[in-house]
Design brief:
This protein has one domain (11-283): Alpha-Beta Barrel (TIM Barrel), CATH 3.20.20. Helices cover 44% and strands 15% of the residues. An eight-stranded parallel beta barrel has the order 1-2-3-4-5-6-7-8, surrounded by four helices. It is an alpha/beta fold.
Length: 288
Amino acid sequence: MKQAYGPGKFGLSFELFPPKTDAGQQALFRHVGELVEFQPSFITCTYGAGGSTRQKTLDIVTQVKQRFERPVASHLTCVGSSVDQLRAYLTDAEARGVDNIVALRGDPPQGDTEFRPAEDGFSHANELVELIRSEFGSFGIAVAGYPETHQEAPTAAVDLENLHRKVQAGANVVLTQLFYDNRDFFDFRQRYESAGIQTPLIPGILPVTNSSQIKRIASLCGARLSSEFVTELEKKDDPDWQFEVGVAQAVQQVGELIEKGVPGVHFYVLNKSQATSRVLSELGVQGK
């Protein structure tokens, strides 16, 4: 992650989640095998709500690194963990050869409407970044940015101030939440750079493959879907049609982002390879 971006480089990365079954895990590794053909700079795996997939997350990233010889990143949230528990996780990750940490505050557990820190835990992601940077210096660190503003932030300005604190604490890269209107990203990038932040800002992209699925995901994270795009998706109640419409939209979106000089792209692949592979193949993109 530290070396993924810069002159002559293009930082391509993919995000996985821990599968719930053995069959899902076998399928995941098949898809990762196809994705690594595009030479990603690193591959990340999410961390379940409240740390519910803690061990599974580490197992997945460890196996990805061993099987595919690519750098890996484990997500880590503050939810439900004391500082000592976070240290224990980071110690385990370091011993397993994990290269990077995606440091997040995390969403409130299901059923809660607001975040509450664990006893002896952290309230903000910048505190987690500070812990990693001060005690686990071998890790590269990614943090999250929100082109359409975090849902809990009172204003876009406050949201950017929060992000700046995470960067100042020692983050190496900012990976954004998914979005579908590049104007939101470009506006965010302008404000980001105007604030004097120089850490690489990487757009997060989720190619659409299913109308109902993306509506649910977008509603959870606050991403806007244009009415024109939704209308085109739902013109036919046909999975192949929706896949093709989603891929075409992602090709256009990612192509414009690359044309406008982004230093990399982070794909939310939902443990599948087909849509992302199509997008990268049509654009002729590989990591460098």
